[in-house]
Fold this sequence. Notes:
Structural class: mainly alpha
Number of helices: 16
Radius of gyration: 32 Å
Order of helices and strands: HHHHHHHHHHHHHHHH
Shape: flat
Distance between the termini: 111 Å
Helix content: over 70%
Strand content: under 5%
Oligomer: single chain
Largest sheet: none
Amino acid sequence: MQRIEVSQKSVEREKTVKRMRSYGVGILFLFLVVSLGACSAERRIQKHTQRAEAYDANEEYEEAVIEYRNALKLDPNRIDAHLALAKVYFKMGKTRDGQWELGEAIRLDPKRNDLRLEYGELSRRIQEYDTAIEQTEAILAENPTNAEAWLLKARTLQEMKKPEDAEAAFLKAIESAPQKARYYLSAALYYSVLGNTKESEKLILAAIEHDPGYLSYSAMAAFLEDVPERSKESEAWWKKAIDAEQGGADELLIQGYTSLSNYYLKRGDAVGAEQTLRQSIERFPKELSFLYLLARLYEQQGNDAKAKELMESATK
Length: 316
C-alpha cells in the first residue's frame, strides 16, 4: 500500500511540474506576443509620422493630417503627434482644429507651461478671453513670477476693457522680470494707448536703463517720432538702435534701417534717406526692399536712369 501511495504522489508531482512548465511557456509566449505587438505598433507609428513630416515639408497638408491621425489612432497619448498636427492645422488656417490638438497635448501633460502660454495666446487672439485667463491662472498658481503669464493676462484684460486689472498685471510682469525690456515696453505701449505719454516715456527710459539695446532704443525712437516738437530726437535713437544690433539679428537690423530711411523720407530729407538706403544695400545686398525704396526715391527726384539701373539690379 505504501508503495502504491508513493507512486501516486510521484505521478501527481510530475503532473504539477508539467503544468508549471506549460504555464511558464504560456506566460513567456504571451509576453513575447505583447512585446512584438508593441514593437510593431511603434514601427507603424514611426512610419506614419515620417510620412506626415514629408508631406508637411512639401506643403501637402491634407495628406500630413491623415498620416498624423493614423499615428494617433495607434497611440492617442502621443503628445508630439498632437503638437505636430496642431501646427499643420494652423498652417492650413484651421485654427479651431489646431486649438483642439493643442488642448489635448495640455491635457496629457498639464505641467507644460509653454503649451499653456501658446494655447492662452491663441485663445486671446480669437477673443476667447475666459480661456486665456484660465491658462494664465493655471501657470501663475504654480509659478507666481512667470512674466510671460502676467503679460498674457495683462493683454487679455486690456482687451476685455478692464484697465485697472490690466495695469496691475502689466506691472506684475515687470516685477517678475525687471531686467527685460520686453515687459517695460509692453506696459509703455499700454499707457500710450490710454494717452498717458508721460508714463509711457518713463517706462521706455526704465527699459533703456535696465536692458539697453535695440528693442529699448528703437522704442524710444518710435515714441519720439509721434511727438511733433521732439520728432527730430528720433534720428539719434534710430542710429543708436542700429549700432547696438550690429552683429546681431539680421531681421532687427533690416527693421532698423527701414525705419531710419522712412524717418528721413517723412521729413523730406532725401540726402539722409539715400545715404541710409545705400548703407542698407551694402549691408544686405539681397534685401530687395531697400533697392525698391531707393529706386522710388530716384523716381521722385526725376532721376529715371538711376531708378531703372536699380530695378534691373533687383531683377538680376
